[in-house]
């Protein structure tokens, strides 16, 4: 079953967040279990972002979260946020390609 994790956060340091994402992509090459990632920026509140990450399963998502590289990036990201990031874990129960 496909699993989606949403990560919502507010930051005024988008350039540094982008650098962190590039660092994570480089350091987790061949290890990460995420299969697809998208980042959205709120049009009405430009400092608000939603990262949408797709995994083949909840178990694979948890394996990815437990990677030391992911832990490091998560800590760094949290330090760049205004408040704590919000994580939402979703089992995909219906999917339509439109």
UniProtKB/TrEMBL annotation:
UniProt xrefs under Gene3D superfamilies: 3.30.70.100
Name the UniProt record assigns to this protein: Quinol monooxygenase YgiN
């Amino acid at each position: 079953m496909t699993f989606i994790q949403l990560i919502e956060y507010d930051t005024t340091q988008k350039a540094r967040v982008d650098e962190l994402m590039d660092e994570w992509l480089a350091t987790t090459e061949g290890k990460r279990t995420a299969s697809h990632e998208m980042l959205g920026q709120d049009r009405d509140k430009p400092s608000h972002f939603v990262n949408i990450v797709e995994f083949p399963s909840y178990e694979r998502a948890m394996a990815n979260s437990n990677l030391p590289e992911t832990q490091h990036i998560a800590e760094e990201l949290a330090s760049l946020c205004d408040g704590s990031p919000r994580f939402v874990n979703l089992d995909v129960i219906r999917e339509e390609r439109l």
